[in-house]
Amino acid sequence: MKTLSSKIFAIVLFAVASINTVSAKDIDPKAVGRVVAADKFAYSLYSINETTKFRLAFVNEQGSNVSVKVYSEDGKMVYADNIKGRTELKRNYDLSQLGRGLYTVEISNGEFVASNRIAVGGAKLNAIPFSAYISPSLMDGAFKVAYQGGAEGVYVTVKDADGTLLYSERNENDNFARKYNINSLKAGSYTVTVDNGNKTLEQTYVVK
Q1: Count of alpha carbons within 13 Å of 208, Cβ hemisphere only?
Q2: What is the C-alpha to C-alpha distance for residues 165 and 193, in angstroms, rounded to an integer?
């Protein structure tokens, strides 16, 4: 049985996600443009059974370089890996030379950075509860959403000022981050909601 690692939110956290976009019949026919989901960088990271190994799997739509750095409990970097030009990856890392314990794994694709605490060799970590991030403002017509602790399912939705649903995406993995562009929507205000059933975050943007 896999032992999932606990994670610490850095800037954003990511995971491989399943996506259900809203169907054409549900979209307001008067809406101009659409919500464009892009530049997904998603990963899962977990320790393997009671071994000193952990597994990293990611989807990196940009194909940018991904760095993996492992730090000991005293903050010393004990391992580094640079993965070039891969859009998908599944790889095991063996920390047997370092031994049982708690480590911090830093993952970065250049734009996104996340730090994750993992326990290997039978060491234990407490689970981290659901938390999420939504960009406070648009940048070039786009916003970012990220969350951790979302294995039970998380919805990302976009609605206009009248409450009409323009976009919906459901993810069932633990960590996730993605950029969404709403610049082609007609002028007005739009509300982004991130909801895991127990906790809801909202952010409203104005498209001019």
Answers
A1: 2
A2: 11
Cβ–Cβ under 8 Å, residues 9 and 113: no
Domain ranges of the chain: 1-23+35-147+173-184
In tens, the pLDDT along 122-179 reads 888 877 788 899 999 999 999 999 887 777 889 999 999 999 999 999 987 677 888 8
Question: Where does 1-23+35-147+173-184 sit in CATH, by number?
Answer: 2.60.40.3080
Q: For 181-207, how does the pLDDT look when each residue is reduced to its tens digit (9 = 90+)?
A: 999 999 999 999 999 999 999 999 999
Residue partners of 139: CB distance under 8 A and separation at least 6: none
Rounded Cα distance, 145 and 114, in Å: 14
